[in-house]
Design goal:
The protein is built from 15 helices and 5 strands. By secondary structure, the protein is mainly alpha-helical. The chain has one domain. The strands form 2 sheets. It has a 3-stranded antiparallel β-sheet, with no helix packed on it. A two-stranded antiparallel sheet has the order 4-5. β2 and β3 form a beta hairpin. The longest helix has 36 residues.
Length: 406
């Protein structure tokens, strides 16, 4: 029991560390280099918790190959580093299904404990009540340095111009935060009677994340269509509400309102179509067009020696193609599909896989964040498990009904 709890604690730390909560900002350490070796030791000392079947081994090999393909150079030292930083994701996949479900439940409960008091304190902050806080800066790598106001139960990014501060809880990026919550809502199948779903929905709304809003609406509509007997009218009503809200907030107070400034205005419209909603910069688009025009072997291998600073501000899936080629894209697609293959009979699990691919396409920054792999790998196991239980109960009811008729 103690061994299992220790495994859960380590994997939860790995997941939450990837989301960059402020508590880790004060530790000038690459904690994945500490967690990685611990996780590798867990494979040997906690064998009863893990299972290494064919799909798990193949996933591990392809994930390591994908990260090798991303590296600008290769050496034994680099290979060891890649294995260490990828070990957390592999460990989550290798957990036996019952332990995946328990890990997801713990992650879900921990997130709720973090989010609820944060929302309450954030509301007091908006009202204008003075709260203890301190300003801190942190080098997050690809986004260089961010400066934020730390209110301990939530943070606000300084230098980001917005109508009102976006709620991001204790995490550094409101977009990533909202997408993690979306996975937790999706695995509960948008059950709005559930407290977790209600709280996470409120948090997504307060985050003013465009990706969070769009994917929430998309996934809810898809799951409603697949999960309800008569979903058409409900979907039509909700679509009508969305369109009505778009028209209303676009024009309310001549567009000078939080929803329009922080959501609608962030979408680029070109020739009547939505264009990437600011996921790439003009300089990169010129370089990518040249990349496509020139063609040749670089389309397959990518230009992974390009300097990262040349791509700052551009984060959609084409950037991954530009750097890592069709080889890189294929490897990512394969590991997502291999992970879901044992659960392919669950349509909800397949929708979860589609959501992860959309999230990756939206921004490659989440590609190797352990938290996203936790909610995906454990989420599809949970959805599959609940589908099996539902089918068993449904079959028993059918058998009883048939027995009565005969």
């Amino acid at each position: 029991m103690k061994t299992k709890s220790f495994v859960y604690i380590i994997l939860l730390l790995v997941a939450f560390y990837s989301l960059k909560p402020w508590i880790f900002h004060y530790l000038d350490l690459r904690l994945e280099l500490l967690f990685g070796p611990i996780v590798l030791l867990l494979f040997f000392f906690c064998k009863d918790l893990f299972t290494f079947k064919g799909s798990c081994v193949l996933f591990s090999i392809l994930a390591i190959l994908a990260r090798i393909n991303e590296a600008s150079s290769f050496s034994i030292k680099e290979l060891v580093f890649i294995i260490i930083i990828t070990s957390g994701i592999i460990a989550i996949l290798a957990l036996k299904i019952q332990y995946k479900l328990e890990l997801l439940e713990l992650f879900d409960k921990t997130m709720l404990i973090i989010v609820v008091p944060g929302i309450l304190l954030w509301i007091l902050y908006l009202i204008g009540i003075p709260l203890p806080h301190e300003i801190h800066s942190w080098d997050v790598g690809f986004r260089n340095e961010i400066v934020y106001d730390n209110y301990y139960l939530f943070i606000t990014t300084i230098g980001y111009s917005s109508f009102i501060p976006r709620f991001q809880s204790v995490f550094y990026e409101p977009g990533f935060f909202s997408l993690i919550l979306l996975f937790l809502i999706a695995y509960r199948r948008f059950d709005f009677k559930n407290v977790h779903v209600i709280v996470y929905t409120i948090a997504i709304i307060l985050s003013f994340s465009l990706a969070g809003f769009l994917l929430f609406a998309f996934m809810w509509i898809v799951q409603t269509i697949f999960g309800q007997e008569k979903p058409k009218m409900l979907v039509i009503v909700v679509c009508g509400i969305i369109i009505g809200a778009y028209v209303f907030f676009s024009n309310f107070n001549h567009g000078d309102n939080a929803v329009n400034n922080m959501i609608i205005a962030r979408m680029e419209i070109e020739d009547g179509q939505l264009v990437r909603y600011n996921r790439t910069k003009e300089d990169y688009e010129v370089a990518f067009e040249r990349f496509i025009t020139e063609g040749g072997i670089q389309l397959i291998t990518g230009k992974n020696r390009v300097k990262s600073e040349d791509l700052v501000g551009s984060v959609d899936w084409t950037v991954y193609w530009y750097r890592n080629g069709i080889i890189g894209l294929t490897l990512i697609l394969l590991i997502v599909l291999i992970a879901v293959s044992p659960y392919r009979k669950s349509r909800y699990a397949l929708m979860h896989a589609a959501l992860l691919l959309i999230v990756f396409a939206r921004g490659i920054g989440v590609m190797w964040m352990s938290a996203f792999w936790l909610v995906y790998l454990c989420g599809i196991a949970s959805l599959y498990d609940s589908d099996i239980l539902f089918n068993k109960r449904h079959n028993k009811l059918l058998e009883k009904s048939y027995a009565k008729q005969t």
